[in-house]
Amino acid sequence: MPSRRYLWISFSRSGESSEGVVVLKKALADCPNVKRLVVTCNSEGQMYRDVQGKSNALGVLLDEGVNDRGLAMTSSFTNMVIAGHCLAHVNSLDQYERVLACLVEAGSNFVPAAADRAEELSRDVR
Prior knowledge:
Elements: E1 7-12, H1 18-30, E2 35-40, H2 46-51, E3 57-61, H3 74-88, H4 93-125
Parallel strand pairs: 1-2, 2-3
């Protein structure tokens, strides 16, 4: 609907996935009135570069330290999820900060317990 306001949000760790780049380029060309937000970990990524200097677009660049290049990509994934949560709670970041602190604490308690259990299970397999 032409009279409605839209926001197109793209999440891409590298900003280089071929499908993401093509879709974003097409959207920029075909829907100039739609605002864009690109969240990425890579300042050199094509998607991030494509929104630079556009009046209706913003690139959110996460810290280079979370730009995993390995197979697991857990730091990139975790930080992009948190960025998404922050965007969803942009009008109540103080409240979300408390939620995030609880999530961090839960994760800090879970990881050692999970590691201990994995070790126990591996001993049973031998």
